[in-house]
Write a structure and sequence with these properties.
The complex is a heterodimer of chains A (219) and B (324).
Chain A (H helix, E strand, L loop, with lengths): L5 E5 L3 E5 L6 H14 L5 E6 L3 E6 L8 H11 L11 E8 L7 H8 L3 H9 L3 E6 L6 E4 L14 E4 L3 E5 L2 E4 L4 E3 L2 E6 L19 E9 L2
Parallel strand pairs in A: 5-13
Antiparallel strand pairs in A: 1-2, 2-4, 3-4, 5-12, 6-7, 6-13, 8-11, 9-10, 9-12
Chain B lengths: L1 E3 L7 E3 L19 H11 L7 E4 L4 E5 L3 E7 L4 E3 L2 E3 L3 E5 L4 E4 L8 E5 L33 E2 L17 H4 L3 E2 L2 E8 L8 H9 L2 E7 L3 E5 L14 E2 L4 E3 L7 E3 L6 E2 L3 E5 L4 H5 L6 E6 L2 H24 L8
Parallel strand pairs in B: 13-21
Antiparallel strand pairs in B: 1-4, 1-11, 2-3, 3-10, 4-9, 5-8, 5-10, 6-7, 6-9, 12-13, 13-20, 14-15, 14-21, 15-18, 16-19, 17-18, 17-20
Classes of the chains: A alpha+beta (219), B alpha+beta (324).
């Protein structure tokens, strides 16, 4: 098991807990459990899970020493508790290819698959949200079929649209707002992932699941 | 109301930041120079976190539509109120109709205009700071534009002002070999960089390139290379993190940094020194000084002591007693 985590300082603002080892649902459930436990500690403002790791952001009064916090974290981790988050399933209607997926051709070329095969492989799994997010409402998904692995663009584009469904390396994701991105857009969804006026502003939470449902496929 | 009169770019409404929402994917934002905003607010009798305007491009002109006591902190912009000079790090009162003009600073980068009561835009998710990527907070989630009318509170006239504070740079200078310096705590991947590159981090100078803004500062110097290529999974980051992309030229994440990153991290500029970075202009060089967590906290306490000192001085000399 991954019982030799790396705990490091992010300046005086936070600690980063890295479980090391493979990214698996089972490790992620331990990360979620750690996140849940740490969130109640007085010196912590929030804990933010991502892929195999946990950001532990300090409150206004950062701990005077980090050593005892490291020990507390390690002790908590070694309890091997798991948090089984059985979240909601969100089905996203996706238009694939053509104007909706300007990098579909590149993904086909790189993977040697046809458009229909890419769509089939991409829409087959039930993806799990491991954590949020590189921007408001954005989530990191686990479950991409590795046959779809396609390297990111060397130079990111600046105007990646909201709702862009894309592949970056061995991951897939949906953009919640327009912005720069180096991922390969293969489709587009119209679902809104973030509403700053809502009491729960982000639609997706860790443990939730996403299924991509092909609506149109432009060949 | 305050009206933005000049063509402007990259000026924004900011407070001390939006904390506690990283788990929604919402970054921290907030002023680049925290002591500058705090001292402006202290001199005006505001809460420390009251929203002000961060101004990185000049000239910048506003018209006051109501009497307002205000403070100018940060870069020295040779400001004038209806053509009458206003000192930097100073408080003054504008009458309705008067125009405040800020010019390109000779030193420093960002000026802060704070007003009695603070800029009264809505609080969104606990903050008035502009969240550009999310398109909310501040003025409709965007940078300010000519013609914007910024709401003030009814009690924005708190007297003539007419006093100032010493800038933190004068009280807490930090240099190394005659160059501005910031303190850095090594981060997770630090030991994985080549020995000569780790040495270069501390012993050579780093030029701030023109591609530096609220998101990040791109630096130029000796390429920082790891012993072997590092593949990182996305993980939480904070403002101040020094990321090293494949080319070896570091990027310091600043206030508009996204909550997650995927590049190796060689170190993190301590929270107490981010304001120093915010006032070094593109083209200039800086040095890094290695510190540990304890020293990073001490630096933070030093700033706090100075803010408390200013608070005590202002309490003895409140706005309403000052003579202009």
């Amino acid at each position: 098991m991954n019982d030799h985590p790396v705990i490091s300082c992010l300046g005086t603002s936070a600690l980063l807990f890295d479980a090391t080892g493979a990214t698996t649902l089972s490790t992620q459930q331990r990360i979620w459990a750690l996140s849940h436990a740490v969130s109640g500690w007085p010196e912590i403002r929030e804990a933010v899970p991502c892929l195999n790791n946990l950001l532990i952001f300090f409150s206004d009064t950062p701990p005077g020493k980090v050593e005892y916090l490291r020990e507390k974290l390690l002790e908590e981790w070694l309890k091997e508790e798991r948090l089984y988050l059985d979240g909601k399933v969100v089905e996203l209607r996706v238009d694939y290819g053509g104007e909706f997926g300007p990098r579909m051709e590149y993904v086909c070329e790189h993977t040697g698959l046809s458009i229909d095969e890419v769509v089939e492989l991409h829409s087959a799994p039930l993806y799990t949200v491991f954590g949020l997010g590189s921007h408001p409402g954005h989530c990191y998904l686990e479950g991409l079929d590795l046959r779809l692995t396609t390297p990111r663009r060397k130079v990111p584009i600046l105007d990646n649209p909201k709702g862009s469904v894309a592949i970056g390396g061995s991951q897939t994701s949906v953009s919640a707002s327009p912005g720069p991105s180096g991922w390969n857009q293969i489709g587009l969804t119209r679902k809104a992932f973030f509403d700053h006026t809502a009491s729960a502003p982000a639609l997706m939470q860790p443990g939730d699941k996403i299924r991509f449902c092909p609506e149109k496929v432009i060949r | 109301m305050i009206e933005i009169v000049s063509e402007t770019r990259l000026a924004s409404i900011q407070d001390l930041g939006r904390y506690g929402h990283l788990h929604h994917g919402v970054g921290i934002s907030g002023v680049m120079d925290k002591p500058a905003l705090c001292i402006g607010n202290i001199m005006l009798g505001n809460e420390l976190n009251a929203a002000g305007i961060e101004i990185p491009f000049f000239p910048f002109e506003v018209r006051f539509h109501q009497a307002c006591t205000f403070a100018l902190t940060g870069a020295d912009t040779e400001a004038t109120l209806n053509a009458k000079p206003i000192l930097p790090w100073w408080t003054a009162r504008a009458q309705a109709g008067e125009i405040l003009k800020l010019r390109r600073p000779r030193s420093g980068v960002r000026a802060y205009l704070t007003v009695a009561g603070g800029i009264q835009v809505d609080t969104v998710m606990g903050s008035r700071s502009t969240q550009l990527r999310g398109g909310f907070g501040g003025m409709a989630g965007r940078m300010l534009q000519k013609g914007d009318m910024l709401p003030l509170c009814a009690g924005s006239d708190r007297g003539p002002g007419g006093f100032g504070a010493l800038p933190p740079a004068a009280i807490l200078p930090l240099e190394k070999d005659g160059m501005p310096a910031v303190r850095v705590i090594p981060a997770a991947e630090y030991p994985l960089f080549r020995k000569e590159c780790r040495d270069a981090l501390w012993q050579t100078q780093w030029k701030i390139t023109s591609q530096s803004n609220r998101y990040g500062y791109r630096l130029e110097g000796v390429p920082l290379l790891p012993e072997r290529p590092l593949e990182m999974r996305s993980h939480g980051i904070v403002p101040g993190v020094i990321q090293v992309p494949h080319g070896g030229q570091p990027i310091i994440q600043m206030r508009d940094a996204q909550p997650m990153g995927g590049y190796p991290k060689i170190g993190t500029v301590i929270e107490a020194d981010i304001w120093r970075l915010s006032q070094i202009s593109g083209g200039k060089s800086l040095r890094f000084i290695e510190v540990d967590y304890r020293q990073g906290l001490e630096a933070q306490e030093e700033i706090q002591r100075y803010l408390t000192h200013v608070q005590q001085m202002v309490a003895i000399h409140p706005l309403s007693c000052a003579t202009a």
